[in-house]
User: Which sequence fits this backbone?
């Protein structure tokens, strides 16, 4: 009889107890996996949104730009810079932008606004920003028209909100519709070298941002138009790099820092540019860890209880086996195999039950509605509950469970080590 | 030829009032003996058997089994020594519950790392000798107390030990099972020339022994050979 068959049989000596133990482990693992997958999924999503709609994984600026975001800290996109970037195979997209502040006016109203100059087609491929155009149409690189963010457009009365009521069988239906009442916007700002600059631009559409701050101040412009407006020909304030995988981020940031002249440029990761998001994720993740810690603590005590009972029941048998001539180390090894079996069944059970659920939500993410959705939108999160599907999650939690079993088994190993054969047999 | 030599054996259990369980025993057991250690309760029979079985260590004195002074063995050497030299039958519930009768007998041979084929053959041979060949696939819980003890005897012999120690092997058995077990042990003793040393209170068992060592207060009171 080999050790595996024997351990297997031993495991099922008390069927009910073993099943309860395995079931508790499986369900703990199930909850832990689901919870962590949703957490990580939400983080990944938030990062993805931020990285793809705004920052890129890595950004190149002129040195000093991040601390003082002025046009004087813009730089020329020259060939030598581009050739360094383009030679990196992991760089999937290169998105130059020119951002600067301006005053935006319409009739009697004026407001500070942020001009975001970017190649619209390229940007849209990344961020699907054209989906956020709620009125009018998206711009293209050669256009001389702009998009105005929803909040800003309302403030400047470029659009009006019309509310119409219609009687239906179920009561009154409220319909809110936007109506464009003006077709252009006046921009006045300071351009490069302190020159003042101004222009009147046709408003081609209204764009809605989930982030309220952006929603109330952005003017979206084709890059060239923005460069012309700011008298900053060929200049950009940032180049965003989208990588084929976020894994490469640190390496490529390091490479760029080593390769480019750091007196001229600065190379920042999204984490450095959005410390808030990083901290928010870390805080949230820590909360999750605490919950999981408590969950595993409870399960761990359950396993320990099972192990203590098993040990007490089998002490005499252990004594007889050692009396007959099995070395204690061998006996310990056998017991460990038993524990690993039980642990593995629990792990496999937990993973197998969590897998279809995670797969389902991976392909059909939960969509929030109502206040919760609004809250998430305000934070710049898309109001969906995505899951992350990372095999390392399964591996990590499987290992944690096995460690719980192993730590509990230490009790038995200790008992075997200290086992007094005669005493054990006499009981 | 003696296979066990006991010299000046003492055992004192340390307690608030130390218990002098064995107080100077000198004995020898020869190959092929069928000996009973008898004496009143608390006289030291179990303690004595435990020490010659290497399960407990003497306070004083020596036990020499086939030229090996077992006091000189380390704990794990002692375990290996037991595996290859000593067969055990305990009072009751000797068997590993998750193993069938045959597997219980094979178990000890597997510990000795003998080839599986040999293990199975010898296990079946021994189960036949104890009259349980048709219960080979049964687990202990489904065997009677007497049957379990017979399996235990088969297992004790499986390792081809120098001698078999049995501490009150019949204590939990009825008359019929007791006689049956004794007959089996007796036959094996003759047929396989296995040395049996057992302790007992039981008149029926004592009657079958060919040597009776009587212990009282940890000392040998009498030692008589019986011709049958
Ligand atoms: N672990 C121990 N600690 C203290 N005293 C012990 C221990 N084991 C045995 N004794 C004592 O040693 C003496 C001999 O005990 P032992 O078990 O050898 O007697 P026995 O002849 O086998 O008795 P029984 O016929 O009841 O089985 C007894 O007085 C007993 O109380
Ligand atoms: Mg006794």
Assistant:
């Amino acid at each position: 009889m080999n050790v595996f068959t024997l351990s297997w049989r031993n495991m099922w000596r008390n069927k009910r107890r073993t099943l309860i133990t395995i079931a508790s482990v499986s369900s703990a693992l199930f909850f832990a996996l689901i919870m962590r997958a949703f957490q990580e999924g939400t983080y990944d999503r938030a990062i993805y949104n931020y990285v793809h709609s705004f920052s890129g994984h890595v950004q190149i600026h002129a040195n000093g730009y991040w601390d003082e975001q002025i046009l004087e800290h813009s730089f020329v996109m020259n060939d030598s810079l581009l050739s360094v970037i383009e030679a990196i195979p992991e760089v999937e997209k290169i998105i130059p932008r020119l951002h600067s502040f301006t005053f935006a006016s319409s009739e009697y109203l004026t407001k500070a606004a942020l001009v975001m100059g970017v190649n619209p087609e390229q940007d849209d491929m990344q961020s699907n920003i054209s989906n956020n155009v709620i009125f009018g149409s998206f711009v293209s690189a050669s256009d001389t028209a702009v998009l105005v963010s929803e909040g800003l457009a309302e403030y400047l009365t470029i659009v009006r909100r019309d509310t119409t009521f219609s009687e239906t069988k179920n009561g009154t239906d409220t319909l809110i519709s936007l109506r464009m009442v003006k077709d252009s916007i006046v921009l006045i700002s300071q351009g490069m070298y302190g020159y003042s600059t101004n222009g009147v631009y046709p408003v081609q559409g209204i764009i809605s941002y989930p982030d309220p701050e952006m929603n109330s101040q952005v003017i979206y412009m084709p890059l060239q138009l923005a460069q012309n407006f700011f008298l900053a020909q060929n200049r950009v304030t940032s180049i965003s790099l989208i990588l084929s995988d976020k894994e490469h981020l640190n390496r490529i940031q390091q490479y760029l820092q080593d390769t480019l002249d750091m007196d001229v440029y600065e190379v920042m990761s999204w984490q450095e540019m959005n410390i808030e998001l990083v901290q928010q994720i870390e805080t949230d993740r820590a909360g999750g860890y605490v919950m999981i810690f408590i969950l595993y603590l409870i399960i761990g005590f359950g396993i320990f209880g099972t192990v203590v009972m098993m040990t007490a029941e089998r002490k005499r048998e252990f004594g007889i086996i050692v009396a007959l001539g099995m070395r204690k180390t061998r006996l310990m090894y056998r017991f460990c195999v038993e524990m690993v079996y039980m642990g593995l069944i629990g792990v496999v059970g937990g993973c197998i039950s969590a897998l279809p659920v995670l797969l389902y939500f991976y392909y059909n993410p939960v969509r929030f509605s109502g206040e919760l959705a609004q809250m998430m939108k305000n934070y710049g999160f898309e109001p969906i509950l995505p899951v992350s599907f990372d095999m390392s999650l399964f591996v990590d939690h499987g290992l944690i469970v096995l460690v719980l079993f192993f730590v509990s088994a230490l009790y038995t190993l200790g008992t075997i080590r200290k086992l007094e054969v005669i005493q054990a047999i006499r009981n | 030829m003696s296979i066990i030599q006991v010299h000046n054996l003492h055992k004192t259990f340390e307690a608030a009032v130390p218990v002098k369980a064995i107080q100077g025993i000198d004995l020898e057991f020869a190959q092929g003996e069928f000996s009973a250690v008898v004496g009143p309760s608390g006289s030291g029979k179990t303690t004595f058997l435990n020490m010659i079985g290497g399960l407990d260590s003497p306070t004083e004195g020596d036990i020499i089994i086939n030229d090996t002074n077992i006091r000189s063995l380390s704990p794990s050497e002692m375990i290996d020594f037991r595996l290859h030299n000593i067969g055990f039958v305990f009072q009751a519930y000797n068997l590993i519950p998750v193993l069938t009768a045959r597997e219980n007998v094979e178990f000890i041979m597997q510990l000795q790392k003998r080839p599986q084929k040999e293990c199975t053959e010898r296990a079946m041979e021994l189960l036949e000798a104890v009259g349980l060949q048709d219960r080979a696939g049964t687990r202990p819980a489904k065997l009677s107390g007497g049957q379990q003890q017979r399996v235990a005897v088969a297992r004790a012999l499986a390792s081809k030990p120098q001698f078999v120690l049995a501490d009150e092997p019949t204590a939990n058995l009825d008359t019929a099972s007791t006689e049956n077990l004794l007959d089996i042990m007796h036959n094996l003793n003759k047929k396989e020339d296995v040395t049996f040393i057992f302790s007992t209170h039981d008149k029926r068992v004592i009657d079958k022994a060919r040597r009776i060592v009587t212990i009282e207060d940890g000392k040998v009171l009498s030692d008589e050979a019986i011709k049958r």
